Amino acid sequence: MEAADAMPKQPLSVRTKTNGAMADDREVVGEPVSPSARLLEDMYIVIIIGFAAPMNLPAFRAGVASRIACHLPFRSIQATDKKGILRWVETTVSLDYHIVCPTLDAVAVAIDPDQAVEDYVASLSTQSMDNSRPLWDFHLLDFPTSEATSTAVMRVHHSLSDGVSLLTLLMSCARSAADHMKPPAMPPLPKRTGAIYARPRPPASAGALAFARWVWSFVLLAWHTTVDVAVFFATILFLKDTRTPFTTTGHHGELHRKRIVHRSLNLEDVKSVKQTMNCAVNDVLVGVTSAALSRYYYRKS
After folding, report:
1. What ranges does the record give for the region Disordered, renumbered to this chain (predicted)?
2. What secondary structure letter does DSSP report for 32?
């Protein structure tokens, strides 16, 4: 491993496109883009963050520069070398491009600020990002809504990060209200002890039938896992997804308008369901979302 690290990396001649024109050749070094990142070519993560105070643009810019733009994926672009290999190439980050302060219709904001935020976030789904720059940006909406004093919308290409990693990164940028030098205290991880998370071996006194049921539960788990994996790869290779109201139509690379709708839930109600079902808060939220999508599907079908 040490010998491999000591070997010099061969420079690459990379071309990048800027507004349809070809830029000059540059000698750069970069890691190959993973196959999973290539599959996520047209997928973006959109995060809406509400703040309890008006937007402090200088402090926000300083935080983004020191906590987000410093990470290599957030200061890299995808470029093709002379051999046709797509690689991550480090570039210069201009916060003037990545932090956007849009000017919205003042009348629309005054009438319904929540709808103005929703409409603006929906419009982002139709706006492509410049591939000659790192594929992420912040959009700052500095006006009050029913749930926040100001709002920040972060849009990130899915090849840079997954949702959990991105939320972890954003949480690391936060600071405690009691001590601005310390990160916020995080709640302890939930202990999943319900029957749906464990398959304890039955005692010998339970009999052979109970033991057979216990073994059969693992057989079913292995079978369903195998079928799901097989269907997944078959769908990638030759099967087609069933047409549903969630299926997008159009040619590859075409941007479709998407609307992000959110609802606020009472945390005490969520915890009540959690305690009744003996599960985690995340399980409750996933169940509610699944039920909502099912109702929407059957209503539109």
Report:
1. 1-28
2. B
